């Protein structure tokens, strides 16, 4: 079963981007493929990749494992509440990481 979570793309001593995915492993593969083809739909990330080269690092910041039965997510009553929770977690990470952190604009 795919792992949901918040991830970060970064280079050593450079800005970074964070995002959320319902399938972290699949998102990583897709982003690497798109970036190498210069076809990433999120243009700020493509520019970031083009500027810094092929040494992009990927880090999972937080996992939402379905096996854990995460109460805050499983208790959500509708999609809007779930989206708001994820966005709050993204902004928490953005604040925690400091510096210039961009949000990858992908559907939650």
* N-to-C order of helices and strands: EEHHEHHE
The helix fraction, in percent, is 40-55%
Terminus-to-terminus distance = 18 Å
Structural class call reads alpha+beta
Number of strands: 4
Instruction: Provide the gyration radius in Å.
Output: 14 Å
- On the 0 to 100 scale, the average pLDDT is 83
Main β-sheet, spatial strand arrangement? 3-1-2-4
**Percent of residues in β-strands:** 15-25%
| Low-pLDDT stretches | 67-71
Instruction: Give me the number of helical elements.
Output: 4
Largest beta-sheet details: 4 strands, mixed
| Shape call | globular
Write the layout of secondary structure elements.
Blueprint: E1 4-10, E2 16-21, H1 24-36, H2 43-52, E3 57-64, H3 71-74, H4 79-97, E4 101-103
Keywords, please?
4 helices, 108 residues, alpha+beta
Report on this model:
The model is unreliable at 67-71 (pLDDT under 50). The longest helix is centred in the C-terminal third of the chain and has 19 residues, at 79-97. The protein has 108 residues and is of the alpha+beta class. It is globular. It has helices spanning 24-36, 43-52, 71-74, 79-97, and strands at residues 4-10, 16-21, 57-64, 101-103. It starts with a strand and ends in a 5-residue tail after the last strand. Helix content is 43%, strand content 22%. A four-stranded mixed β-sheet has the order 3-1-2-4. The protein contains four helices and four strands.
